[in-house]
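Design request, tokens follow.
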């Protein structure tokens, strides 16, 4: 019996080795194909995003806010928040080619658009300009997004689908000081210094009070009141070395807070977290689809 089955065993062993090696080769081939796709599209994405983020026209024409259901009047305001980064890099994963029908129910080849689907698409921008403010780093995330193939292949961006925009904003001590240039009343301040340590912000400088100039020191932290509001919580305020009473601090804070309030802007922006680390404030936020305020 052993002699009868021995050739069969040999055949099974040979087939196992052959098929096993071919499975490895197939898996390796698929892996190489995905890697080649990433290598091909990464520089094209970086070029296209740099072109888009450096032009108000291209930024408003890339269709991402249309995918999030914002209207034309709101999209016209996008020009004001064009990032204009000094440089950027792209991180991506899970890329897939597909075809989308141009018209519902029409699946003919002539009525389809060739697209690229991205599971992960992060655009890391350095030295982003926001009005007169420069922000150290902003990462724009476009998870599960779809971009038209032909546009991207020619160095432009046109989103076919986007569910949200994830933001990771890294603001430095110098960035915070530059915010003062946006407020006319801040001209009363001089020699201002800001120090950020984990969970705490400290600032000192001089403030002009009529014909007098006083030195101030302030210490505190930030508190997320809601997804749309963040307040500054002052733990100590001294003027010319004299600690100020809580009632006075509360009055001052009523003029300052909220330090962040997205409820008054047209973008549906929610803050997930805002934390003070060494020398920086890190904010995680999401631009969601437009809210239907008329919905019951």
């Amino acid at each position: 019996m052993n002699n009868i089955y021995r050739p069969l065993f040999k055949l099974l062993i040979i087939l196992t080795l052959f098929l096993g090696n071919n499975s490895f080769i197939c898996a390796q081939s698929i892996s190489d194909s995905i890697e080649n796709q990433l290598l091909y599209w990464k520089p094209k994405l970086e070029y296209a995003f740099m072109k888009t983020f450096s032009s108000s026209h291209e930024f408003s024409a890339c269709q991402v806010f249309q995918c999030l259901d914002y209207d034309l009047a709101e999209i016209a305001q996008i020009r004001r928040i064009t990032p204009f980064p000094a440089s950027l890099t792209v991180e991506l994963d899970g890329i897939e080619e597909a075809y989308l029908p141009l018209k519902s129910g029409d699946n003919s080849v002539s009525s389809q658009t060739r697209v690229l689907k991205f599971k992960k698409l992060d655009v890391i921008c350095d030295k982003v300009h926001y009005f007169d403010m420069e922000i150290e780093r902003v990462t724009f995330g476009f998870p599960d997004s779809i971009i038209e193939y032909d546009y991207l292949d020619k160095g432009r961006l046109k989103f076919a689908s986007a569910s949200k925009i994830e933001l990771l904003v890294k603001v430095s001590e110098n960035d915070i000081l530059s915010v003062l240039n946006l407020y006319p009343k801040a001209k009363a301040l001089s020699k201002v210094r800001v120090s950020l340590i984990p969970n705490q912000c400290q600032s000192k400088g001089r403030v002009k009070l009529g014909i007098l100039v006083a030195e101030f020191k302030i210490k505190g932290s930030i508190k997320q009141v809601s997804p749309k509001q963040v307040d500054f919580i002052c733990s100590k305020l001294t003027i010319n070395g004299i600690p100020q009473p809580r009632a006075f601090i509360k009055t001052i804070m009523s003029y300052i807070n909220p330090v962040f309030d997205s409820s008054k802007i047209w973008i549906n922006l929610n803050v997930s977290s805002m934390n003070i680390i060494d020398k920086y404030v890190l904010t995680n936020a999401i631009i969601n689809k437009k809210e239907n305020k008329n919905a019951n």
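Comment from the thread starter after seeing the answer: thanks! The radius of gyration is 28 Å.
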